[in-house]
């Protein structure tokens, strides 16, 4: 490889923390208004291009494989709400697609409509109304993201949010669906989308403070300027962020405010608006809860999913009133090892999202005149799977729309009829070109961490390949925020599997796959468990004959990018290559600066190193940027976006600059920065396929070249 890689000049700056001097040679890269910074980033992009030019044909081949396997003109399974069936459409050659609806013709028929002539071209449904043409909205922009869209309860208005830079600061517009015209209303700098009130005359929305913490809820009356909007709630505690939503029953609006380990809800009863906003239960440090409205045995109640009775949560009932937790009554008691995550309430049943033994479960509680009449799981037979309810916006529905997938089963949409207990497959995501799930095998493996804890691994590969000897494996992981990386299917992944490369997920601590304790044991002063678990998983793949260290590709993004950086420092011999997407690799610097986006809200995840020396020392012991040393690193591809507001581009930029100056093989490090994108990367499906093809080609090259 060429030795002419970019070298960022060292410009030391120092700060004092806990009597210690911390010197940083590359903090100057934070100023993206500085032409020298942009010049360095562009030089890194040029170097990355030069070092990967030989992969152009492979990238093109992978892109064409993804394209050939994807039904480009397609139609999602329609979802019924307020007399209409809503669905999305995609079109060959277009990046974004459209959202549409047709009128429901039979109030008692819950069978979603399908095109009269189901062909490869997927024609429009009869009477189709295009609500949003996303490609038209994206025209003229290098980046486009729909932050959310919602039809008013009256069904005549559509509020939608767009972002055209990638910084997640959305603009909300309102479309009159009877005329197709936009109203004069325009809401700027919105954090996400907006929520209608019950009578379709007002929108509730969220804005963020300078540190990009969602802190205010506003009410906008249609026909008035944004400057006159009512500030409904302002969260002043810097650890908490806010959100707003309306219940399926349409009776209540909720404002939720939460830190990592504490929550508080306010409610507005549209049946009694004069009562105003009321606090359901005052926040208590360490008590997390959420609230849903249900009708059980003819009585309106609040369902409270909370951890006050145990770490894996229980579901309780409470009256429609401010209610202290001493008066919450268990409906589903806390059961160790069964993590209750959420509950959706409908007129005749409840749907509970839970997980047990590392797998997701969907639980149905049927409601009768006297309360819960039955309680059971919706069962599937695969060894590894992910199940969850889909879009179910109608309170009176007898149908549960659910999604199901495995690592070899394409995403599938089912309707479960609670009355008949029949499960009907409505659609399985098409995979063109003769895909057969039986050509692949998937398994659950278990690695043993240094402290003796068994760590699950999900793996998929071409059938029979494992028996032929070690294979290259892409080992993905995240391991933070109790986010679970459950088994899932991916069309782009087939370009790896069909080349004899396996794909595995290391379900490391810090995630939520094995319950709340799994999360607690991978955060704060136990964060090292996340890294040790991953290293143990990589070594298990090698020791059990699935792969060899030089053939294991490590991949993770965001907080998973921090994991990648820590693994590269601590066990560079455990993997053969590292892909770190939008990586949180300068975590200590970020957590020492309360003015940076999201820092204060992250204290309950990582700790506060500025206030606590033990936390400072602990983070300093694993922080990827701090711990770059003069050793031979596996080849690294770091990917970021210039407009990312969650993990700023400067983190991977500094990390790469330090690796260049310190590593024994600095030329093996690449930095790829998207100049018109945000945390989620580029926008548009074709751009996303090209982006993934770039990463996959690099991975393949690392484990197949001599």
From TrEMBL:
Q: Which residues form the Peptidase S9 prolyl oligopeptidase catalytic domain?
A: 489-703
GO MF annotation list: serine-type endopeptidase activity
InterPro entries named in the record: AB_hydrolase_fold, Pept_S9A_N, Peptidase_S9_cat, Peptidase_S9A, Serine_Peptidase_S9A
Which GO biological-process labels does this protein carry?
proteolysis
Q: Where is the Peptidase S9A N-terminal domain?
A: 6-428
Task: Kindly state which keywords UniProt assigns to this record, in alphabetical order.
Answer: Hydrolase, Protease, Serine protease
The family assignment reads:
Belongs to the peptidase S9A family.
- PANTHER family per record: PROLYL ENDOPEPTIDASE-LIKE, PROTEASE FAMILY S9A OLIGOPEPTIDASE
Please give the name of this protein: S9 family peptidase
